[in-house]
Amino acid sequence: MTDASTTLPKTNSSPWPSRPFHRQYLMRQANNLFDFFAAPSLNPKGGFFELDDDGKALNPANSVRQVHGTTRMVHCFAIGSLIGRPGSDEMVDHGMHYLWNKHRDTRHGGYVWGVDDHGVTDGSKQAYGHAFVLLAASSAKLVGHPLADKVLADVTEVIEHRFWDDTVGAVREEFGNDWSQITTYRGQNSNMHLTEALMAAYEATGEKAYLSKAERIAELIIARHAVPLGYRVAEHFDENWVLDKEYVGSEMFRPSGTTPGHWLEWARLLMQLWILGDKRLSWMPDAARNLFRQSIELGWDAQHGGFFYTLDWDNKPVLREKLWWPVSEAIGAAAFLSAYDREDYFQIWYRKLWDYAENHVIDHERGGWLSELSEDLKPKSRLFTGKPDIYHALQACLIPLYPATGSLTAAIISTDHTVKQYQ
Question: Which of 169, 245, 350, 411 is the most exposed, fewest CB within 10 Å of its CB?
Answer without folding.
Answer: 245
